[in-house]
What does this fold into?
Amino acid sequence: MPGATPNIGASVRQRLLNRARERGIDYNLLLLRFLNERVLYRLSRSPYRDSFVLKGAMTFDFWVDAGHRPTRDIDLLGFGQNDPDALAAMFREILATEVEPDGLEFDPESVEGERIAEADRYPGVRVRADARLAGARLRLHIDVGFGDAVTPEPSVVSFPTLLDFPAPEVRIYPPETVVAEKFEAMVDLGIANTRMKDFYDIWLLADAIAFERPVLANAVRSTFLRRGTPLPTGVPPLALTQEFAANPEKARQWQAFLSRTGLDEVPALDSLVDVLQRFLLPVLRDDEGDRHQWDPEAWTWRA
It folds into this structure.
């Protein structure tokens, strides 16, 4: 794996270790966060920069200062062909992009792609590759989905960096579409839903962003239409009811999610579904001329 300067890699590892100790963060997760950040930088410097939009948990690094759940993967929306071999070849080129030395080395022979389908709902391609940082072996995971409706249009942002390296300039999902996709999964899956991360993610975004209700409503309508899920009418969807929160299996899954991610200062599930009702149900109203804006401090919609 050519191309890295050992002294740079050792320096990066030491600085990341110092940061992990100072902030009480898992060092291995921080290594993966650095890996993913620098892969995004290579993508932003490659001819394929416009072929993907960043989505998933990494987008929260741009919207919230702290408190988001850790992630090991890069999630992307892809445009064009979704053939695993073609995507593997594409990322082989991306990882070989010439950039300022950051200590990372990638093994081009290890890059591989395979089809994925989470419960047959969201087909896509998973790309994996091996990397090293001054002797530390890292495994890169990139999930690429296709065909989702993104409303409003993605914007280009400077992605936050851990250390003093150039920032990736990447296209990023709008928070409205993040909320819409997670809300659609809640409605569609109902009591079978095990995606506790979606409840937390929507709560975190609603606690941080002053959404414009017409924009969010448009994103919700577009996502539900694209995925063939009817919009809830009349009564709240099951996932936003006390019946759901009181289900012993859901309570166990919620506690397991909190324990696994190490998150604290998060509402209990019964309180969470109540506040998410307050945020999400008004978005379903078909109010012409709606100009409401979300107040994240007061947790209410204001005209």
